[in-house]
Design goal:
The chain is of the alpha/beta class. The chain contains 5 helices and 6 strands, in the order βαβαβαααβββ.
């Protein structure tokens, strides 16, 4: 398996990192690499909608079988994993907004709204509450450091066909 350069990410072994685990391969590899590099990794999966109907569905982002898959990966890696019920937040911030925008003749992108309003705002707050110094995902994007400011900058993924940086803007 590849290695992660913790110094490039301004991380040190032993520091807590929360990994947003979708149940897919990308977030699973992210969690495994950070754990292998010595980070104190905690996996979090957000349950965003009906866990009854979706329980057996695969690929149902943040519900059903994907939650089971994320938990199984966390168990195999040997990290704690928590499922947080964000269903009410998701409905208010994404579903209701999507329906209103669509009714007004716009074509909203619910995944971007979810990332902005739920995953990266609320999940970052949870990560901080857990004492994490970072929140990691399996998105295809790159980061670098601005030489003038020392701050991280989001960059498009190396493979333009797989780039997901547009999901990550604030």
């Amino acid at each position: 398996m590849a290695e992660i350069d913790l110094a490039k990410l301004a991380l040190s072994p032993g520091e807590r990192v929360v990994v947003a685990m979708s149940g897919g391969v990308d977030s699973a590899v992210t969690a495994a690499l950070l754990h292998e590099a010595g980070c104190d990794v905690v996996g979090i999966t957000l349950q965003l909608y009906d866990h009854g109907v979706a329980t057996g569905r695969k690929g149902a982002c943040c519900a059903g079988q994907d939650i089971v898959d994320a938990r199984n990966v966390a168990d195999a890696i040997g990290i704690p994993h928590y499922v947080l019920d964000f269903e009410a937040r998701f409905k208010a911030a994404v579903i209701d907004d999507f329906a209103q925008s669509y009714a007004a003749g716009r074509t909203p992108i619910p995944c971007v709204r979810c990332n902005q309003r739920i995953k990266f705002r609320d999940l970052l707050e949870v990560a901080r509450d857990l004492g994490a110094v970072a929140l990691a995902t399996g998105h295809y994007a790159r980061i670098d450091t601005d030489a003038a400011t020392g701050k991280f900058r989001l960059r498009s993924g190396q493979d333009p066909a797989r780039d997901q940086s547009y999901f990550l803007f604030p």
